[in-house]
Amino acid sequence: MKKITIIGAGFAALTAVRKLRARDPKAEITIIGRRAEFVYLPSLIWIPSGLRQPEDMVVPLDNFFRRMRVKFHPGEATGLKEGGRVVLTDTGEVENDGLIIASGGRFIKKLPGIEHAITPCEGVAAGVKIRDRLREMQGGTIAIGFSGNPNEPSAMRGGPMFEFLFGLHTQLVREGRREHFRLVFFNPMAEPGKRLGDKAVKGLLAAMAARGIENHLGHKITGFAADKVMTEGGDIPAELILFMPGMTGNIWFDNTELPRSPGGLLKADQFCRVEGWDKVYVAGDSGSFPGPDWMPKQAHMADRQAASAAANLLAELNGQEPSHTFRVELMCIMDTLDSGMFIWRTPDMNVMLPPLSWMHGLKRLYEWGYLRRLS
Fold this sequence. Notes:
Elements: E1 3-7, H1 11-23, E2 28-33, E3 37-39, H2 54-57, E4 58-60, H3 62-68, E5 70-74, E6 77-81, E7 86-89, E8 92-95, E9 98-101, E10 106-107, H4 124-136, E11 140-146, H5 159-174, E12 181-187, H6 198-210, E13 214-217, E14 221-225, E15 228-231, E16 234-237, E17 240-244, E18 247-248, E19 266-267, E20 280-282, E21 287-288, H7 299-317, E22 330-335, E23 340-345, E24 350-352, H8 357-374
Parallel strand pairs: 1-2, 1-9, 2-5, 9-20, 11-12, 11-17, 12-13, 19-21
Antiparallel strand pairs: 3-4, 6-7, 7-8, 10-18, 14-15, 15-16, 22-23, 23-24
Helix pairs in contact: 1-7
């Protein structure tokens, strides 16, 4: 019986489970994670308005693991030995015949004073903090921005920050408080959202202008204080700061000899196989993959990589050569709380639709369908 271990319990990990089980009903699958639960991070954008409560986003995985016949090992990975055949955790060792690393990324929090900014995608607690701070405010400036990993162009997650920006505008309008607030979007790039495509950049900037949202673009961010964002182009006074830094690899990677990209992620080939390692694969935010520099760090892409990793790992375990690659594709609905902008980019095309009310409903429908599969 094949023994397969997956590190992580996010989008890539759960997709890997489904694909592995569909291809091999008898494989022994073990997941390593801190808790047997899944957090649907895309819904964080709806916590400040009350459209979602924290408990709506957290799904216990006991039923899913039971249906998929998965063993759960509670703990955090701390290293590897025997060429990846043994995963070291803070609660013991886990042996395997094949390994998929889907433990996500880590935000680079090196800027001075970054503790004064809220990083939304760190989890539910961050969304709740934004909600509570916003309720306390009678007015003032809200500064929202993101940056990247200078050594890894793809290791950034800017989409949710645009959604928070537009969502907070819509929320404040609904509450009759918009005139008391100044919304400022800041970014070290002169053309933020460039990875979404040229059409998207123009569309996003036009959407900001239409909503009275100010921009502070093209200036390196130097730090934060309790009441301001500091950049080489001047300070932005702000009572509330939301900031998404660039991403790098997990700390536990440092305790291994796994090959790293310049940005600190795991180097993978087109088959999602960690370079130079036997039957060790990576999917999602943990990996650095060959392809265009606009390759997104998003759930859609993580799912595609996980499907390839699962198929190729099983092929190797069956004595075959890996052959499954993944299509690089950026696809998202950028939500504004009352509408959504559809963005689709492939190596051959770039599509952006203007805000449409039914797109908001479609995003909520997708959330319902995804979580239903885990219940």
